[in-house]
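BUG: 3D viewer hangs when loading the predicted structure for this chain

Environment: internal workstation, default settings.
Expected: structure renders.
Actual: progress bar stalls at 90%.

Input used:
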Amino acid sequence: MKKLLMVIGSILLTFEVFAQNLESKMDSLAMTLTGKGQPGFVVGVTKGNDVIFQKAYGQMNLDYQMPNSNQTTFNLASVSKHITAFAILKLEEEGKIDLDAPVHQYIPDLPDYGKEITVKHLIFHTSGLGSTDNVRLFAGISLEQPWTADDEFELIKSYRILNFNPGDEYLYSNAGYGLLAKIIENVSGQAYDAYVENELFAPLGMSNSFAYTRPGKTIPNRAVGYKKTDNGLERTITESESVAGGTNIFMSLEDMLVWGRHYFQPTLFSSEIRPRLESSTAKLVDGTELKYTYGLNLVDYKGIRLVSHSGGTMGFSAYFTWYPEHKMFVAVAANNQNISTATISRLVTETLLSEYFVEASLAENEDIELPVNQLRKFEGEFKMEDGMVLTFKEKEGKLFLLIPDAPEFELFASSPSKFYLKAFEAQTEFLIGSNGEVNELIWYQGGKSFPGKKDDGTLPVPAPDKDELLGNYFSTDLNAVYQITLKNDVPILVMPRTMKYYLGLENLPLEHIDGDRFKVEKLGEIYFTRDIRKNINGFVIKDVGRLRNISFEKTK
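Structure tokens produced before the viewer hung:
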């Protein structure tokens, strides 16, 4: 027993030394990030039941030069999602919600999308619903104008374009979590803020945690959010948006640490909940396991299992991370949206857990050698759907990727038809036909797949006459008009003011790919549609990340 106590004492002493080292690093980082009299951040760490580090940096309000403290409340942005998911799990344990039930069972006035969407689809971002933050930008709705849960629901009802069939893919969607908040209200009979504050926070003694769900609702000790602009720091208008579910949980550092410790010794839920949070319980229709559970991402960072989620909104940034094998929790929140809370969180990991790191192999499989005659089958130019051309060339028994104005990148074979790169994270699979020829490939990068076809020398179909493209185009789902006009004799797509303000996108030239297909900066591919008389009658923006197949009809 004495020996065991000595070991435990040694471990605690080691973490105390690490914590002192962490404070030194955080103080140094804060000098860089917050400077003098600037907004800042808070960071806290728990190990088991012990708080081993907590500290606040910078100002919560620049007008009054009020410093951040352990009681200052920060908007957790999308970190809020796991709290919504936990509320759903609590209601499920009470027998009030069936996660496999259609959403219409709990929200009868939701539109019929032609495909059944379940509660689980909303939780795991597999519903196919377009993300409302993106819908607002493309609809020309400012992210800083007054916006309530009712506004959000009306937007969800009006935008009926599904990105894909429910369950087929994973694609992050804020709309899904807005609907989960509405389900919580309809099932519990309480407003969302009342439910999470009374049923989740109050029982844990978290008196400085709130859900901002009504314009003007008082949030005690609330930090003011800021962002960097060309003219310096600017206060953001965050009080106007009061949408719950996917954002707008405000929490102090002290309460963050209470919440983080509760994860390891839950009292609000049964002990059976935690394994569901830490394992890939959800699968797509094709059997692919998701690395997303109940508002949380599953990550392997240098051999250490993490359960985490990031958050970012106007003026704020946040990051929560649990380390199941080490019973450790890290919370970071900032009232400057330009501060990377993810970077701060990683610094904590590097400082406290580096001795457990295991460097992962760059390849899932061991490299294999392929004969030269096999490698030469993969040579040629492959044209991607967005018009980009990838060229592959065999040299001295190796296969290389050639990109204009870039060095040659060697590819490494992991199978007779699959290759990966060590220079950056990407893979390609060559599709070998029944005749042994290779005319197609699939490029994998950034969690997406991009098909390409070998250039057979066929000339592209000429572009439509410029005059055919010009005009106004209306999207029923966005309730917005876009214009295509000429600038320096080049067709351009005129974007809504919101796109210019938030993303710097204004007049975007149309670059011809083939026939009625064009490439547009930052938007990717758009293609024009035609009526039975072969006249252009609209266009479709194919894929902008969280929205796909946005259709417009030509009005004149």
